[in-house]
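Posting for a labmate who doesn't have an account.
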Amino acid sequence: MLYSPKLALINGFVLENDWENFSKMWEVYETKIDLIMYQPLLKSLLNLLEWMIHPLYSKVSYSKFFSNVDL
């Protein structure tokens, strides 16, 4: 795993929803680093994606329409 204070700062921008500073700093790393190398940033971005999708998913979920659904 990679340990970098700059990547930790970028991760902090994700956690605080500071997209302006995130995009400025991420420009430097986007072609040089694979997110798998820095797990905290990957986890933060995946949590953000889940947070964004969850309200949409719950609106179209099968459990809303059927009480006993085994998928």
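Reply:
Got it, the structure tokens are right above this. Residues 5-60 form one domain.
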